[in-house]
Amino acid sequence: MDKLKMQTANLADEKFKKLLELFPNIATETIDSDGNLVRSIDKDILTQEINHNVVEGRQERYQFTWPGKKKAIALANTPINKTLRLNIEKSIGKDGSQGRLDSENIYIEGDNLETLKLLRETYVNAIDVIYIDPPYNTGDDYIYCDDFSISESEYKNISGEFSEDRLRLVKNLDSNGRFHTDWLNFMYPRLLIAKDMLSNDGVLFLSIDYHENANARKILDELLGSEAFIGEIYWESKTKSQNTKTAYNKLQPKAEMILVYSKDSKRRFNLSVLGKKEYPFNDGNGPYREYALEFMNAEGIRGRESMIFPIMVEDVTINPPKGKQWQIGQELVEMYKDNNDLFIRDGKVFVKMRPGQERSNITEPFWGFIDKTIGTAESAKKELSNILPNHGFETVKPVELIKKLIFHASNADSIILDFFSGSATTAEAVVKLNQEDNGNRKYIVVQLPVPYAEDSLGYKAGYRTLCDLGQKRIIAAMSNINTLTVDLGFRVLYLDSSNMKPVYYEPTRYKQLELDLFEDNIKPDRNNYDLLIQVILELGIELSTSINMALYNQAEIYTVGDNYLVSYLDTKILTEDLVIYLARLKPVYAVFNNQSIDKDSLLSNIEQIFNTYSPDTKRMVI
Q1: Is residue 105 over pLDDT 90?
Q2: pTM tops 0.85, yes or no
Q3: Which site in 70, 333, 445, 610 is 20 to 30 Å from 222, CA atoms measured?
Q4: Residue 256, exposed/middle/buried by CB under 10 A (0-12, 13-18, 19+)?
């Protein structure tokens, strides 16, 4: 049986393998600085293969660079031995009840760079909308150092702000000689990983202002390609002038920018007007309403010959009357037919319109300017204060603004990611949008648990970290939604070190006597849920997938999805009956704790049993 790695992928190795698939002859070997033989790429052969100009050394070229860029790229590619752990007590069920795990929304507490590394394998090309509101680098923002660690004594004695896991939060003052460099090194690795998670027609929205607008665009142009730039939305975020020292010698900004990027530069936005619709019918593909295709005049400015064609379903064919044309084109008709969403009844053609597919007769452009009527920064703070008084949070976006962005760029089943969650505006916007258009969108939000100072308004109001505020905001906002069709909850997970002891990763570093001390390679404070989540992450299973625990002769069995994964993670010795029970479930994956297999004969029996009952199951151990 294969052994799970229980660590994130090495992205540099993955890219190396992809290059070798294209050009296997570029592989060579050389000696590194420590005298070790290592696999390498022969640059000369690669240059010959691509038959293109290669810029080297100090040769002039156009490039976007800064001190630390190479390190930022390496940081994104470097694997980590970390995991996410469930907090069942904080988790909220679909119906709003505490301590349940049936919600498909995810709230993660932890550093967003390491969290993105953990999520990447599962959500590659899977996120339809990314919205982030990162630090604007105004000279008064905190960013955190990715490579800064301190000892216990330093932690107690040094001044400054820290997260709970001792990531140092550094105020990036504009007097800092590395002012822009620090921000670039902070943002680049996060966006480098996030772009892999964006779906092929997904959309990335990044809120920013004039301080780092140019650099943000350069990063995204480099990572996604300049052709991926869809446009820039100006949001009227202020209605009052600022009373600052620069008010007399600089223009006063009235708007903030939202950069819009997509891997598919020709993608179509949803231009219909958001409104409540009822979907009374349901089939194997979900809820729908019946919409009768009508004819329109085939003359004048809207007349097009391409809209005049026969529609045939089974043995029935309908043509537009003379002088008339269909409302939609043949390509869209074929799409509906392929999805079994087109049918003919009583001489009329009907389309099954589903949530997220609506294109109403009333449309409005996705404008590059959004005025103050949708809400301003000041109104957003009041909006939050109405549900959470004394929150003490300064940088809030209006729910309606984020809801509008998501509506135009998503479909009914989209996954929305926000890895600078802040006060959790995005989470609230997703749920309220689902309520309005009967959608089933899911969110993943990530926030560093930044602690509130003891003398702050937030601390006095009962919030210990920014995550406390975000989660309570979601709960408070959801209390006003009275429906059984919307997922009101979220699963809370938090970033932590791996469940496995160091010996699991490098057993060759330990002598036999030391290995005997590490017979159980799982940390003593970890439970089966902890192990299961780390397995789920490695196998690329979505964190929103259902998790069930069952007892078989007092043994705890965990199943994920519709028996997609079954696991026995206890250290108690496996029995043949239990293995047969698991094999009969015919899972895609079966994972066992290696400590539960005490003999080679038992290992052989497991293989034989699965070969009999479920030969296609992939058997793995931790």
Answers
A1: yes
A2: no
A3: 445
A4: buried
